[in-house]
Amino acid sequence: MAFLETVLSIMNKKNISKNKILTDLKLSKSSFIDWQNRGTIPGGETLVKIADYLNCSVDYLLGRTDNPIKTVSSNDFSNSTITNSTVGTNSAKITVHNNQKNELSEQSAELLKIFENLNIREQTKLLSFAFELESQNKNS
Fold first, then answer.
1. What are residue 72's phi and psi, to 5 degrees?
2. What's the whole-number mean pLDDT along residues 18-41?
3. How does pLDDT run across 85-117, given as a tens digit for each residue?
4. Is 10 in contact with 17 (CB distance < 8 Å)?
5. Which of 10, 17, 59, 107 could form a disulfide with 65 if both were Cys (CB 3.0 to 4.6 A apart)?
6. By the 8 A CB rule, do 50 and 61 touch?
7. Cβ–Cβ under 8 Å, residues 78 and 23
8. Are 31 and 22 in contact (CB under 8 A)?
9. How far apart are CA 64 and CA 66, in angstroms?
10. Which long-range contacts (CB under 8 A, 24 or more apart) does 125-131 make?
């Protein structure tokens, strides 16, 4: 499912109007028209705001997973579940998995260290850039 179809489907299930989401998130009135007519996808910060608002993951909005629930997976955590955590302005249940040990390359470990030292806004920008690079590579 494409980004816009996913957003509209969730909005429909939650009975949220286009006007309401645009007003609540302070988005341009032309956002839905741009997404539909131009086939554009909002930038990282806006994607995160929409995902938080709709209580789903950015990956779900982008069609990268069929699971709308936000999950985190990292070797730095032991098997545990964190509940009632705050993500953006919404409460979320985040499940942390560590079922198998995966070795990171030196570059991957360095990138993860850099990412973890960034604030949430910078992390969002970096993820948005990574998604753009990945998209360009798929189209090449």
1. -125, 135
2. 90
3. 334 433 333 344 444 445 667 777 788 888 888
4. no
5. 59
6. yes
7. no
8. yes
9. 7
10. 125/44, 125/45, 127/44, 127/58, 128/43, 128/44, 128/45, 128/47, 129/44, 131/44, 131/62
